[in-house]
Every structure is written in C-alpha cells, then in structure tokens.
Batch of 2 targets.
Target 1
Amino acid sequence: MSEQAEAVPDLLTLPGERQQPFADRADARADPDADVAARVGTLGHSAPRAEFERQGAFLHVGEFLPDEVTAGLVASARALQDRINRNYLPGHKQGGSVSRHTIDQYAPFIAQLYRSKALIGWLEQICGEQLLPSPEQDPHAYALYYYTREGDHIGWHYDTSYYNGRRYTLLFGVIDESSCRLDYELHTREPDVPTQAGSVQIPPGGLVFFDGDKLRHRITPLGANQMRVSLTFEYVTDPGMRPWLRFVSNMKDALAYFGFRQVFKRLAKGQPPRA
Ligand SMILES: [Fe+2]
C-alpha cells in the first residue's frame, strides 16, 4: 500500500504572489451549481429519463458539464496527482484513486459539484427516486480514479450497494488521452430481457449514470503513454448499513481503492463509523 506524500504542490501560485493553500485557491472558483442549473435546464429530463429506463437504469450523455466546470475538474485532477493511492489486485484491477477525504482537503470545488442541488434534482428526475449523499465516512462518495500506467484497468464488476438502499453511480470524464473504453452489459439481472452489450468513451465533461447493482461494466486497459482520469459520485436512497456489510465494504475499499490509512483513519480517531 503506498504512502501518500504530505506536500501538495501549489500549482496555481505565480512568482511573487502570496503563497496560499491550494484549497483556498480552489474555493475561489465559482460554485458550479448555477452553471449546472443552466445546462440541465437546456437538456431537460424527459428524453434522458426515457433512455435511462429503456436501458435498464443506464444513461450516457456525451456532453454534459459546461466548459468552465470541466476546466475546474481538470485543474483539480492534475493538482492532486501527488496524492494518488495506487492499487493492484491481480486479474481484476490496477490503477490509482484519490478519496473524498483528500478531495475535501484540497479540492472543495469537487465537493461543491457533488452537492449541487441542480445536479441532484436532475438525477432524481432521471431515476425517479430521492437521492441522498453518501455518509461522510464513505471514501467513494466522490473520488477521482487515475489510469496513468500501461495496463491500468478494472475488470467486469457491479458497483454493488452495501447500503440498505440502492447505490447510484455518476461518472464524469475528466481527462481522456487514452484508448480506454467503458464496456457494459445492460439488463443482466432482468431474466426476461436479453442482455445488451455496449461500449463508450467518456470525454471530458461527459457522463454516465447508472444503478450500481444493475450495470455490469469494466474499463479496458490503458495503452502505453496514455492517461485517463474519471470522477465518480455515489448517491444512495438509504444510507443505513448493517455492521457486517460495513466491515466488508471498508475492507474492500482499503484493499482495492484507497488504502487502510484513508479508510480507517476516521475510525482510529474515535469518530463514529458510517451511520
Ligand atoms: Fe464501477
């Protein structure tokens, strides 16, 4: 498990400027809610909702985020590169992650986007359910996923919900200088509906939105000298979780994604586990 560097480079400070923590600089960016509100006002929800239903709880929108919001995500993703936790699970997964705890510290612009009322309201229209943010202790609530070394990938899986309710995944493209694809299979858990395979690339500012227990999916391996960064948001319909499943979820997050330090440091500090 790699230890993360303590120092974060202040990439935005010009010579002669007063030194400011990156978080303060990121805070200086406008709240993305108004930009997202304008976008979803144009896009509407009727057609996306129909497509989401037709595809068994899966939606792909090639161009979603306004350019200025995408630019903010790209700047945050590049600034957080020294904070990546690399993981390798033979035969299943290889790549890097930055958890919501690190994002809270150094890129609050992303946390603002996660809580955008316009964004959540639009997603609720699409899936037809009330969506809640994931509990504070969940490192997946919002996280950056980095594919930076040849062969980085994740094999076929579901974004299984360990919560009492459903878990929805919203995935934004942030940086895509790669040949990676999101391969997916629709309707795999609907016995009377034929499985339908698909494959998309997600350009910066594009999104996919799906019910984690219904979409079987993978990311194909990164080629040489390529780079890909995605941002995922996780929303739930009931944030309660049984203790045994909480243990399973924490161990999986520690081993496969963020490292024990990120996942368990709040518990070690005596903070309560997930509600
Ligand atoms: Fe996934």
Target 2
Amino acid sequence: MKAAVVRGTQKLEIEDIPTPELGPKQVLVKIKYSALCGSDVHRFQYGMANEGSVLGHEYIGEVVQIGRDVTYLKESDRVVGGGGTQPEDAVLPKYPNDRYSARTVGIESTRIGGFAEYVAMDEWRPLLIPEGVSDELAVLAEPASIAVHAVRTSKFKIGDTAVVLGAGPIGLLTMQVLKAGGAARVIVSEPAPARAESARVLGADVVLNPLKEDVVERVLELSGGPGVPVAFDAAAAKPTFQQGLQMVRRGGQLLVVSMAWEDVDLRTVDWIGREVEMKAAYGSQPIDWQTGLNLMSRRQLSSESMVTDESFIGWDQMQSSMERLMKPEEHVQIVLVP
Ligand SMILES: [Zn+2]
C-alpha cells in the first residue's frame, strides 16, 4: 500500500509499504480521509517522528476485513480512527514515566498511522460514525474530541461568556462546543483573515483581530469590566498565553489546549494579583469522542468552511502541504485522500 513515510526532519517520502497483517481481534480499515493535524506538522517540523513511521491520526474509513475473533465490527462499517473504550485486558504500550511529554519523550514510536491507504486497528479502538453524519464532518471527530475534552475539563459553565484565542481547527471546534454547551457569548481572537471568517461563519459572536486591536482591552470592555470567567488558548502563539491570563476575571481560568513548541512571553505582574488559574488539557477520553459525535449528529458541530473542496489533497501534495502548514495558515483544514 501507499504511505507517506517519515524520512528525516521535514521530509516525507511516498513509498510502497506492506499492507498491515491483521491480528485475530483486529480490523483493517481502508482510509477515506486523513486530516493533517497541527501536531503532525510539529513532529514533522521539529524532527520528533521516528524514521520509518507514518504520521496521521485524524482519519475515517471503512472496515474492509476483520480478524477471526472480531465480534462487534463488520465489513463496510464506517468508522472514525479512535474513541473506543479500552478493554481491561488490552495490552498497550505504557508511557515511560510520569513525566511523559511529547517534547521530552516523543509521541508513539514506529507506528503506521493514517497517512496510508490502510490501517490495522484493535477492534475496540474505532467508533462507528452515526448515520446522517457526513464523511466531511466525521473527519473532524478527533479534533472535536480534543475540543470537548478542553471544555469539559475547564471551569466553563452554561451561561458564561468565553474567549477562544486562535481559530485553527481546535479553536473553531472549541468555539462550537462552547456554543452547544450554552455559552452566553463566545469571543474569538484570530489574525488570519480566512480563519477569522470561518469563526464568523460557524457562529462566533465577536471576532477580534489581535493585529489591529488590543484584544485584552476589547474583552474587558465586552465583559463590562472584570474580564471573562474562562479563556481557551488554542493558538500556541507567542502572545496568546499572556493575553489569556490577562483577560480572565479574578479567579478565572485560562485553559491551554494548544502546545507551544517555542518560548512564549509571560509577565506575571499583569495577572497574578487576580489569582487566576492556568490549566492544561491534553488528548481526550472515550466520552469526549462520543460527545463530539453526538454533537455532530445533532448538527451542533459543523465543518462548514473548515473542510471545503480546497481541503482535499493527493499524495503528491503531502510534502508541500506539511511545509505550508508550518507557516501561518490560510487553509483551515487539509485532508489527504489516499
Ligand atoms: Zn490531532
């Protein structure tokens, strides 16, 4: 099968590799769509992916073959590439220690991910795509689960006004999850015009441009003075961490869902006196995936302007698309059609 194989820092080669062999409790999924995630781009950009591995974890497809002990899934089932509940007896690679992080240890080793024609998965791992949810929406299931997890683990409560810094895929999905969760208003800050427009299309109540206005001042104004109860940093840009801490009210929370791979600016005196809180959210749990899919089937999450005709690329554009995503992005989501 064809796959985009990591061959050094910032280098992918399209190669023919063996189609994965199935274990008795595994299914073979023919990948239909596989989105390029910011974290794939980081691993590519900073050389954090092992030689010979295949990146890609935001994919959907169809079950085309099942192992002999598979009971739950069958051929032609439409699935997303994760979200299932791990059985108690599952044997999984364990994180090396408590200090595990993407930066210090790296993400999984030499696995074959979703930038390939097929992927073999343990039967428990994928979730079925609900009827009525399009492939173009379902391909957002993994980032949607990240957004749900961020909101669920934050201090956000129904009726709150919240800020989302950054309107990349995670920011846009977080904004929609907040709306679905009963936010009074969601304010989005985003400098790239195409992304700001997506935020508007998808229902942001206010979209600020941090290059043209003082976003902290504006958020204070919009909140009537004290700041907002919770802000989400979905940008990992140099100034957003500081902005988020500055714009939350006394005792408020900055929920960090993005990963900054470079230093960010902080000046504690601007917010320490309000005893604000910073919390991180990382990854997602099965309930977050399921909730994301539920919101999709209730049409409370949309892929409009996130996944468009221009999103789709072929093998020949993999390398250039990864390179392009290293720079400030105009495209909201890029999706490989293997
Ligand atoms: Zn991702």
